[in-house]
C-alpha cells in the first residue's frame, strides 16, 4: 500500500457528517478483521460498511471529522492478533446518513493481492472448548473461530468468503448460523465455522479390510493403534501425516522401513509446552516459536534424558519438535498420552499426500490405519521448519503457517514475474506490485509427482492473484526441471539467473536492500556463469548484476553426484590436493574399509579429471572434513555429514588452522590446503574430533572475515549478507556475523530460507531488474 493519504490526518473540529473510503492492505481476510471493524465502529459511533476486496478490505465510514480521525487511528493501533496491516489509504467521499454499520458482500477489484492469511493454529478459546465435556464442540476435531483454523489450504478463490472455500458444501446449522451472524460472537463471520451437527466428520479406513467405516470414535481408534505400535496416516490441515509412538524403537524402525527413510530425522509432536521442555533444552526464542500461531517444526537440542526412541534422529543431538496446531492433532496426541512421530505423509522424495484417495493409494503399504475426513484440502502445504540462528528464529522451510504471507519489497515490480526456483527444496515465487509471494514448499524436483505438484501450485497461485506473468526467471542449469518448465511457458520473457546471485538477491529483498552489497553465498553446488560448480562465493551484487570477487579453491568430485553421496571420495580429493597425492591414507581411519581397488580407481579419476568435475562449494569442504574427522564414508541424506561435523564441534575451542588467500587469481581464491595438512597432523596426534571440527569452523570464519575486510578496501564499506544453505549451520553463521559485526552491517535470513527454498525470491528480483530500464552498478 501507499503511504497514508493526507485525509487520514487530523481534521479541523466540527460536527458535520463526512465520508471516507478507507482501504486496508495486508493480511486482513480470515482473521476476524471485518467483525472487529464492525465492533470498533459501533463503539466509536461510526456508521457505514466494510467488505473484503481483492486487495484486502475496504471501509466506507461516515461521521464527524473527529470521529473518523480517531477511527482511522484505532484501525492501525489495535487490529486482531492474526491480522497484519501493511498500509491504510484514505480518500474523501460524499457523506451518507446511515442508521448503522454493517458487513456487506465482498467485491472484486481490478487489482488482486492475496490478502488471506496462512493457516492459523487453534486458539486458547477453541482448545478449551474441545476439552470441555459440557461444550457442544467437545472433542470436535474441526473447531475454529475467527482467531484460528484453516485458511489458505481450504481456499479456492479470493475474496475469502465461505462460498470460496471447501466449507461451502457444509450448510451451517441454526446454532452455528446464529454465531456467524452475532456481532459480539468470536465466530462472527468465521468462514470455516462448524460443529458436530453440520460440519465435516472423521472416518477410518483399514487397508487390511480395504474398507472405510464411520468409526464412532476415530480418535480413540487412532490412539489405540498407535499404542499398539501401528502406523497411522492422519489427514491434517495441509496434507497427511504418518504418526507412530515416538517412544517405541520398533514402531519408528517400522515406519522408517516402510517410508524408505533410512536416517533422516523425523519430527515429533508433543501435547504441550511442558512436555516439550521435558524432551529438549529450550531457549526463550525457541519457546516463542514453538507456541506461535505458525506452529512450525522447531529444531532444538534434545535433552540427554529424553524418553524418545533413538531411531528418531540417529547420531543427532537435535530434535525437530512441534506442538499440535489443529484440534484433531490435539485430540489424538492427548488420547495417545505420549509423544508421537508426526512426519510428512509421503514416501521418500515424493510430495505430501493431501487427498483421501491419493493417500490410500500412495500410503496403503505404509500405514496400518487411516484417519480421514470430508473437508477437502485445496492446496497441499507441508509443515514449516524453523531454527534459531544468531539469536533469532530463521525459517529453514517456509510452508504451512507462513504461506501465502506476502513479502514487502524495497521497490515494486515493473511487470509481473514468475520465478521457478531451484531443483532441490523447490519453492516458486510470484512478484506483482511491491509484493512477492513465495509458494509452499514443493520439495526436490526429481520425479513426476513432485513436478506435477509444482505445476499445480503455480497455476493455483496465479489464479488466486489473477496474475498473468510477463517475465519468467529460472536457474542457469540447463537440465533442471524448473528450467525446462520455464522454457515451456511460451510468450514470456525468460531470464536466466545465476544460482548464487539469486541467493544474495533473496537476502537483499528480505531486508529491503537495493545494493550494492557484498554477499557471502555458501552452499554445496550451484551452476556457475562459467559452467563450473560454484558454492563458496563472495559476490559484489545489486539486483541487476554481480562481480565474483572471491571463491574457495575447488575440489574434484569423482563420479559427479556419486561423490556427494560417497563422501570419502571428496575427502580423498581434498587430501590428494593438499599432499600432492602423498597423503598418509594408511594411517587414517576413514580409508580402512575402502577397497584398495576403489581407492586406485578414484585416485586416477581425480588425477586425470575423468568424470571428476571441479566444485567450489563450501558444502563440499564440510563433506570432506566431516568424512575425514568423523570417519564417515557416505551421506544418507543431504547435509548429513556437514551437520554431524557442526554438532561434533567443541564450543570452547577458539584456535583455527592456517590458510592462504591467493589475491593474484581472479577471482581471489581461499586456499585451505594448509588447514587440511594441519588437521591431518592433529588427527594423527590423537587430537579429539570435537577440537578438529571446531578449528575447521573457526578457520572458515577467519578466512571469510579476511576476504571481506580486504575486499572492502577496494569496493567500500557496503552491507554484508550471509546466504546459502551453509548458513543453516549455527556455528558458521554466528561466527561470521560476530566477526564482521563491529565494522559492517551484517544481514542474515529470518523469514526467507537461506537455502534453496528462498532462492525463487532472488530470481524474481534479478529478472525484474534485468528487464526494466537502466543497468547494473556491478559487472
Describe the structure.
The chain has 779 residues and is α/β, with parallel strands linked by helices. The chain has four domains: 6-103, Alpha-Beta Plaits, CATH 3.30.70.100; 202-373, Alpha-Beta Complex (DHBP synthase); 389-515 and 754-771, 2-Layer Sandwich (Nucleotidyltransferase, domain 5), CATH 3.30.420.360; 551-748, Nucleotidyltransferase, domain 5, CATH 3.30.420. The protein contains 22 helices and 32 strands. The strands form five sheets. Strands 6, 7, 8, 9, 10, 11, 12, 13, 14, 15, 16 and 17 form a twelve-stranded mixed beta sheet that branches. A seven-stranded mixed beta sheet has the order 29-30-26-25-24-31-32, sandwiched between helices. The protein has a six-stranded mixed beta sheet with strand order 18-21-20-19-22-23, sandwiched between helices. Strand 6 (202-206) and strand 7 (211-213) form a beta hairpin. The longest helix has 27 residues, at 689-715. It is globular. The two termini are 33 Å apart. Mean pLDDT is 92; it is low at 1-13.
Amino acid at each position: 500500500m501507499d503511504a497514508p493519504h493526507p485525509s487520514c490526518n487530523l481534521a479541523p473540529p466540527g460536527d458535520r457528517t463526512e465520508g471516507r473510503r478507507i482501504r486496508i492492505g495486508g493480511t486482513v481476510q480470515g482473521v476476524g478483521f471485518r467483525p472487529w471493524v464492525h465492533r470498533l465502529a459501533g463503539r466509536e459511533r461510526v456508521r457505514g460498511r466494510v467488505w473484503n476486496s481483492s486487495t484486502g478490505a475496504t471501509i466506507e465510514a461516515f461521521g464527524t471529522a473527529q470521529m473518523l480521525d480517531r477511527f482511522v487511528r484505532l484501525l492501525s493501533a489495535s487490529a486482531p492478533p492474526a491480522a497484519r496491516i501493511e498500509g491504510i489509504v484514505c480518500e474523501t467521499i460524499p457523506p451518507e446518513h446511515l442508521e448503522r454499520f454493517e458487513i456487506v458482500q465482498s467485491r472484486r477489484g481490478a487489482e488482486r493481492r492475496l490478502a488471506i492469511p496462512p493457516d492459523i493454529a487453534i486458539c486458547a478459546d477453541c482448545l478449551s472448548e474441545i476439552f470441555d465435556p459440557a461444550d457442544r464442540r467437545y472433542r470436535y476435531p474441526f473447531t475454529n473461530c475467527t482467531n484460528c483454523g484453516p485458511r489458505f489450504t481450504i481456499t479456492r478463490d479470493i475474496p475469502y468468503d465461505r462460498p470460496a472455500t471447501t466449507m461451502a458444501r457444509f450448510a451451517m446449522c441454526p446454532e452455528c448460523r446464529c454465531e456467524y451472524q452475532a456481532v459480539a460472537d468470536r465466530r462472527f463471520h468465521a468462514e470455516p465455522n462448524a460443529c458436530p451437527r453440520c460440519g465435516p466428520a472423521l472416518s477410518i479406513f483399514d487397508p487390511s479390510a480395504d474398507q472405510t467405516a464411520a468409526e464412532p470414535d476415530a480418535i480413540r481408534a487412532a490412539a489405540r493403534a498407535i499404542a499398539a505400535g501401528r502406523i497411522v496416516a492422519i489427514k491434517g490441515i495441509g496434507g497427511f501425516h504418518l504418526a507412530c509412538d515416538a517412544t517405541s524403537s520398533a514402531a519408528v524402525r517400522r515406519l522408517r522401513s516402510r517410508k524408505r527413510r533410512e536416517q533422516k530425522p523425523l519430527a515429533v509432536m508433543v501435547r504441550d509446552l511442558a512436555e516439550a521442555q521435558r524432551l529438549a533444552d529450550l531457549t526463550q526464542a525457541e519457546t516463542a516459536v514453538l507456541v506461535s500461531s505458525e506452529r512450525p517444526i522447531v529444531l532444538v537440542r534434545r535433552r540427554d534424558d529424553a524418553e524418545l526412541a533413538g531411531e528418531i534422529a540417529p547420531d543427532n543431538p537435535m530434535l525437530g519438535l512441534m506442538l499440535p496446531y489443529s484440534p484433531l492433532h490435539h485430540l489424538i496426541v492427548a488420547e495417545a498420552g505420549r509423544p508421537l512421530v508426526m512426519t510428512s505423509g509421503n514416501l521418500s522424495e515424493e510430495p505430501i499426500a493431501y487427498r483421501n484417495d491419493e493417500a490410500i493409494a500412495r500410503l496403503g503399504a505404509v500405514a496400518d490405519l487411516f484417519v480421514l475426513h470430508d473437508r477437502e484440502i485445496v492446496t497441499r502445504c507441508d509443515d514449516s521448519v524453523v531454527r534459531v540462528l544468531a539469536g533469532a528464529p530463521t525459517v529453514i522451510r517456509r510452508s504451512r503457517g507462513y504461506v501465502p504471507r506476502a513479502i514487502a519489497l524495497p521497490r515494486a515490480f515493473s511487470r509481473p514475474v514468475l520465478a521457478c526456483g531451484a531443483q532441490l527444496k523447490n519453492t516458486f515465487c510470484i512478484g506483482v506490485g511491491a509484493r512477492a509471494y513465495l509458494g509452499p514448499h514443493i520439495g526436490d524436483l526429481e520425479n513426476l509427482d513432485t513436478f506435477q505438484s509444482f505445476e499445480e501450485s503455480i497455476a493455483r497461485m496465479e489464479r488466486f492473484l489473477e496474475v498473468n506473468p510477463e517475465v519468467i526467471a529460472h536457474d542457469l542449469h540447463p537440465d533442471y526441471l524448473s528450467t525446462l518448465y520455464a522454457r515451456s511457458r511460451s510468450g514470456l520473457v525468460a531470464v536466466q539467473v545465476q544460482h548464487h546471485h539469486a541467493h544474495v538477491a533473496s537476502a537483499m529483498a528480505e531486508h529491503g536492500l537495493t545494493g550494492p552489497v557484498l554477499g557471502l553465498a555458501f552452499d554445496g553446488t550451484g551452476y556457475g556463469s562459467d559452467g563450473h560448480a560454484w558454492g563458496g562465493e563472495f559476490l559484489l551484487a545489486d539486483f541487476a548484476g554481480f562481480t565474483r570477487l572471491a571463491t574457495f579453491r575447488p575440489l574434484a568430485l569423482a563420479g559427479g553426484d556419486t561423490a556427494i553421496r560417497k563422501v570419502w571420495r571428496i575427502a580423498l580429493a581434498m587430501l590428494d590436493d593438499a599432499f600432492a597425492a602423498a597423503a598418509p591414507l594408511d594411517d587414517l581411519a576413514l580409508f580402512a574399509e575402502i577397497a584398495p581397488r576403489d581407492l586406485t580407481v578414484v585416485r586416477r579419476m581425480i588425477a586425470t579429471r575423468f568424470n571428476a568435475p571441479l566444485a567450489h562449494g563450501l558444502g563440499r569442504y564440510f563433506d570432506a572434513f566431516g568424512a575425514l574427522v568423523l570417519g564417515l564414508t557416505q551421506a544418507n541424506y543431504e547435509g548429513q555429514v556437514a551437520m554431524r561435523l557442526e554438532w561434533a564441534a567443541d564450543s570452547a575451542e577458539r584456535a583455527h588452522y592456517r590458510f592462504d588467500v591467493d589475491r593474484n587469481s581472479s577471482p581471489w581464491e581461499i586456499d585451505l590446503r594448509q588447514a587440511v595438512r594441519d588437521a591431518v597432523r592433529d588427527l594423527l596426534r590423537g587430537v579429539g574430533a570435537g577440537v578438529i571440527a571446531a578449528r575447521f569452523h573457526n578457520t572458515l570464519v577467519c578466512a571469510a572475515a579476511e576476504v571481506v575486510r580486504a575486499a572492502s578496501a577496494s569496493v567500500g564499506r557496503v552491507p554484508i549478507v550471509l546466504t546459502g544453505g551453509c548458513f543453516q549451520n549455527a556455528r558458521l553463521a554466528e561466527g561470521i556475523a560476530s566477526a564482521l559485526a563491529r565494522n559492517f552491517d551484517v544481514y542474515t535470513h529470518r523469514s526467507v530460507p537461506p537455502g534453496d527454498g528462498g532462492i525463487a525470491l532472488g530470481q524474481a528480483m534479478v529478472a525484474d531488474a534485468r528487464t526494466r530500464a537502466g543497468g547494473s552498478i556491478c559487472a
